[in-house]
């Protein structure tokens, strides 16, 4: 694991940039038009930002340590704080969105909330501001994991979401798993009812070639038996799942926050081209 990755694990706030309309071609069943928040503005480049976190259910620390934020000398991470602050931020601005994946953390947090906070969170989920992606107990690996375990842990998480929110996750959010298996593609994505699967880990030469070929996004047909009936839209990230260059959200990083607004945007674009945030990010 590289240093950047280690720093980023605690609260990996990654910005997914989806340029243009989010409408995708329907793949298999279960397609639902995406809610694009405040809507698409005609005549402008529309960029949709979806904030999310990925939290390992045990890696350098135990699941308990990750949740409460103890043992931070090993790694700065506190998922409880993440969930507390996300809810507050979503309530503050109804145009904000957040997605969360790992039910091992969410369930622990949810069960300790007051009825008032739970009602608030239900409203956020119903309004589409907070969405569960993947929704398994953890984000399972695919390289060596037995498919029974993948089914089992995904079922556990999905049952909780269904019982508490009457929702079923739609996005296969496999951004950190090592290895990618056909079972994940056809059984735990298409057959499960997801309409897409997204991942970051891919061989670096494969990624480079796909960037060149513009084939990072493909329709993945994972089962010869089921063929096109269980194919799925698959998306490999152009870079890892860290924030894009210049966007730093980690509390321990040696940068100041991005500060771009209508008044200074033109100046920054003129000065720094496609990375207008550059001059803002050096430590003062
Ligand atoms: Zn991970």
From TrEMBL:
The lineage of its organism: Eukaryota, Viridiplantae, Streptophyta, Embryophyta, Tracheophyta. It comes from the Eukaryota. Residues 46-256 form the Glycoside hydrolase family 38 N-terminal domain. SUPFAM superfamilies: Glycoside hydrolase/deacetylase. Transmembrane segments: none annotated. Residues 1-28 form the signal peptide. Keywords: Signal. GO terms for biological process: mannose metabolic process. One of its GO terms (molecular function) is alpha-mannosidase activity. This is Glycoside hydrolase family 38 N-terminal domain-containing protein.
């Amino acid at each position: 694991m590289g240093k950047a990755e280690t720093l980023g694990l605690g609260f990996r706030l990654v910005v997914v940039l989806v340029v243009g309309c989010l409408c995708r071609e329907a793949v298999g069943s279960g397609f639902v038009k995406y809610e694009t928040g405040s809507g698409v503005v005609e005549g402008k480049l529309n960029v949709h930002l979806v904030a999310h976190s990925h939290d390992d259910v045990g890696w350098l620390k135990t699941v308990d340590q990750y949740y409460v934020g103890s043992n931070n000398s090993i790694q700065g991470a506190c998922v409880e704080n993440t969930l507390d602050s996300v809810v507050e931020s979503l309530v503050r601005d109804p145009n904000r969105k957040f997605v969360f994946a790992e039910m091992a953390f969410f369930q622990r947090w949810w069960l300790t909330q007051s009825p008032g906070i739970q009602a608030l969170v239900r409203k956020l989920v119903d309004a589409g501001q907070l969405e569960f992606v993947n929704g398994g107990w953890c984000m399972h690996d695919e390289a060596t994991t037995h498919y029974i375990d993948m089914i089992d842990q995904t079922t556990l998480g999905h049952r909780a979401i269904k019982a508490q929110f009457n929702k079923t996750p739609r996005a296969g959010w496999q951004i950190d798993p090592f290895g990618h298996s056909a079972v994940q593609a056809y059984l735990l994505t298409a057959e499960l009812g997801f309409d897409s699967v997204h991942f970051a880990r891919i061989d670096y030469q494969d990624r480079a070639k796909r960037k060149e070929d513009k084939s990072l996004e493909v329709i993945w047909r994972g089962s010869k038996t089921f063929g096109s009936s269980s194919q799925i839209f698959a998306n490999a990230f152009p870079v890892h799942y860290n924030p894009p260059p210049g966007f730093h959200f980690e509390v321990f990083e040696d940068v100041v926050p991005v500060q771009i607004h209508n008044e200074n945007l033109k100046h920054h674009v003129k000065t720094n081209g496609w990375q207008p945030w550059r001059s803002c990010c050096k430590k003062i």
